[in-house]
Recover the amino acids of this structure.
């Protein structure tokens, strides 16, 4: 039998020993200052950079092309690129963040920007702005989205805005006109009209999906009252009553107006809009080409309209950086890395090659060179058309915002199933927020 | 097992019931029972295999059919997904991912067998100072969740400059770090009578000779079991390669599969499903070929040698 049981005390000691060994190595990491920055990059120095981004094989092909174009101009900089899907990408980055070895240039998401910046993992780009990194084609608000605690640690590649997609083909089938704008109640009435018309026609179609399951719709309603979700210091800026009222406002439409939660689970990971069972959906405007791809060849165009209005004249919408590029604080070649970042964001060649793959290019020079397909042109036009409603972007999201966003979505699902009441939902969310913000 | 216990009972029951007729009825009833069992088990089997069948059929669905057609059969069957997959991803051909997976799994099998058998022999047969503590420490690593060691291990390999090579995934296998296999083989060796070692010792054999000529041939079932598990686990491993391999040309299949899927820039479900099926085939074949060894290997674990 287990002979080691005789020396039980020793055994226990050894067990604890292996645990302590493993845990003690967890601390440390981060920090590390960069060399004195130079305003330009020495064109003769031979340099190898590592670079990483998230996306699928199509985007990877585009990056390869852009890097080839970059090497025509800078043959002395070798770029080794790699890519992964979004969740795996962050799993790997989190390990590198703790263990060292972040790539020189990386794609950054708004939800992680604060955490990485505050841990000193990202290079402050301030010394390169205006020289190596051209800020002329980028608007002040856009550069401002990458600023954490006074340091610019990320430059947005592209922007998107909250919007509402509608499916004209489905609407035609049931004989309802596209949403003509209005407040949230008007939108709910319109959805009811579509759902009723579809039921009368015997079509499996609903007016839309429950928008109260998304934190962004809550955010723009709060912004309409002049309040971001979180303050500059990362404190929550809404009350339990605000949230209860928001979820309560969706209780009627969850009862048979929007797509039932069970149907949504069946088609997951696609959404109701992807699968032509919802005639409208509120989401980020860059979802357009994904929607068209998932809907299939029968659907060639989509409607993209403003989200319902909470307060007439309020500046509730904003442009969000869909992807940023950041440089590791530990890079040995900050000038070369900055040169690459500038090329990926500002160069006409990158605009031409990427088009709208990463979202609508944030840089004017890239945008001018980009040949946009119809849906991307529609998105670009949409972002131009909502200018009156565009306000200043909210502060960089709190650390753990991604977790909260996901929790919000899960609670939305539970509300859809009717397994929890609005009060319980509010409780759950505030508890989660307490854990996330105070950890 | 069931037959050996059932036969005597029917032999006893036979004469007690009314002669030959009763016996025949019993046999009849037995056949009926067997048929019912076969039907029930087949039904269960189909139920369990349904996802696999769905995967196979779904790999012929065009991309736009995912979501709109959750059923088994594709509305408009197409073989395009396989052509797309054969092209590879981001300039890396599909065979490259296969080769990487095979290399990793092959090295894992060789490394695990080599190092675990040696370590197990030492624990089971060699008396050395601290054997008890070391054995407990090894069992202790079984209790350590993998997630606890991820970061320290990563730091280690990063400092050694081995990230983005296969070494971080292969080297530990040659160092007997999989306590599960060591423990499995230790238990197996302990069941082999010591008399055999002693006889060899009288003939002048040292530890090396005893290990090679006596123990190694006797622990074959345990080695086969370990090999099968090591192969399957490594073939399916996702997190290890994800953390240590950076260049797409080094990715094994499980990572390559995920590259077709990205919620932020659109997903190619058709290609994902087709690639998943292709990735499944080798392990399915491996399992079909080796499963009888697997069963016999596991079964012998319980027997005294």
């Amino acid at each position: 039998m287990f002979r080691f049981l005789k020396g039980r005390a020793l055994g226990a000691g050894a067990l604890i020993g292996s645990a302590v060994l493993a845990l003690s190595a967890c601390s440390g990491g981060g920090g590390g200052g960069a060399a004195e920055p130079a305003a330009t990059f020495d064109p003769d120095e031979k340099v190898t950079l590592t670079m990483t981004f998230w996306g699928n094989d199509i985007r990877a092909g585009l990056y390869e092309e852009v890097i080839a174009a970059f090497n025509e101009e800078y043959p002395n900089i070798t770029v080794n690129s790699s890519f992964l899907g979004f969740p795996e990408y962050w799993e790997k980055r989190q390990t590198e963040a703790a263990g060292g070895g972040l790539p020189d240039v990386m794609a950054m998401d708004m939800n992680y920007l604060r955490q990485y910046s505050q841990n000193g993992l990202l290079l402050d780009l301030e010394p390169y702005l205006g020289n190596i990194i051209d800020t002329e084609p980028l608007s002040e608000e856009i550069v401002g989205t990458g600023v954490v605690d006074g340091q610019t640690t990320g430059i947005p590649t592209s922007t998107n805005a909250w919007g509402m997609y509608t499916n004209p083909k489905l609407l035609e089938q049931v004989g309802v006109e596209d949403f003509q704008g209005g407040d949230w109640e008007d939108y709910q009435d319109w959805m009811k009209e579509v759902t009723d018309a579809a039921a009368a026609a015997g079509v499996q179609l609903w007016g839309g999906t429950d928008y109260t399951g998304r934190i962004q719709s809550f955010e723009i309603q709060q912004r309409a009252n002049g309040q971001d979700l979180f303050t500059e210091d990362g404190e929550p800026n809404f009350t339990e009553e605000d949230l209860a009222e928001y979820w309560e406002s969706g209780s009627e439409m969850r009862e048979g107006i929007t797509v039932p939660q069970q149907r949504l689970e069946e088609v997951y990971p696609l959404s109701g809009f992807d699968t032509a069972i919802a005639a409208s959906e509120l989401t980020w405007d860059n979802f357009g080409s994904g929607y068209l791809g998932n809907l299939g060849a029968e659907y060639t165009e989509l409607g993209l309209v403003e989200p319902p209005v909470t307060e007439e004249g309020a500046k509730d919408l904003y442009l969000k950086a869909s992807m940023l590029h950041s440089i590791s604080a530990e890079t040995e070649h900050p000038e070369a890395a900055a040169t690459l970042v500038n090329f990926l964001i500002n160069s006409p060649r990158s605009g031409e090659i990427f088009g709208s793959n990463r979202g609508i290019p944030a840089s004017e020079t890239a945008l001018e060179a980009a040949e946009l397909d119809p849906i991307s042109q529609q998105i670009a036009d949409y972002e131009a058309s909502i200018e009156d409603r565009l306000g200043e972007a909210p502060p960089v999201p709190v650390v753990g915002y991604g977790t909260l966003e996901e929790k919000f979505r899960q609670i939305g699902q539970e509300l859809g199933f009717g397994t929890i009441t609005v009060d319980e939902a509010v409780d759950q969310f505030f508890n989660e927020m307490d854990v996330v913000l105070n950890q | 097992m069931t037959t050996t216990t059932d036969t005597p009972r029917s032999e006893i029951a036979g004469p007690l019931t009314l002669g030959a007729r009763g016996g025949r009825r019993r046999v009849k009833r037995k056949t009926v029972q067997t048929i019912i069992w076969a039907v029930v088990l087949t039904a269960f089997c189909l139920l369990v295999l349904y996802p696999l069948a769905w995967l196979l059929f779904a790999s012929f669905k065009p991309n736009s059919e995912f979501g709109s057609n959750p059923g088994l059969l594709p509305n408009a069957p197409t073989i395009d997904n396989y052509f797309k997959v054969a092209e590879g991803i981001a300039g890396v051909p599909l065979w490259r991912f296969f080769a990487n997976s095979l290399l990793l799994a092959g090295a894992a099998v060789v490394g695990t067998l080599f190092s675990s058998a040696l370590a197990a022999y030492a624990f089971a047969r060699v008396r050395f100072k601290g054997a008890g503590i070391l054995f407990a420490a090894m069992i202790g690593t079984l209790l350590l969740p993998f997630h606890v060691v991820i970061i320290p291990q990563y730091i280690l390999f990063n400092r050694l400059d081995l990230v983005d090579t296969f070494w971080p995934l292969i080297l530990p296998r040659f160092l007997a770090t999989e306590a599960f296999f060591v423990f499995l083989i230790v238990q197996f060796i302990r069941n082999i009578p010591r008399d055999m070692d002693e006889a060899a010792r009288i003939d002048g054999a040292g530890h090396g000779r005893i290990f090679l000529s006596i123990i190694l041939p006797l622990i074959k079932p345990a080695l086969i079991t370990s090999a099968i598990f090591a192969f399957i686990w490594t073939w399916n491993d996702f997190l290890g390669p994800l953390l240590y391999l950076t260049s797409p040309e080094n990715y094994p299949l499980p990572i390559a599969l995920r590259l077709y899927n990205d919620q932020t820039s659109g997903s190619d479900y058709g290609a994902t499903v087709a690639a998943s099926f292709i990735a499944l085939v080798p392990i399915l074949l491996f399992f079909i070929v080796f499963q009888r060894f697997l069963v016999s290997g596991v079964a012998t674990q319980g027997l005294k040698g």
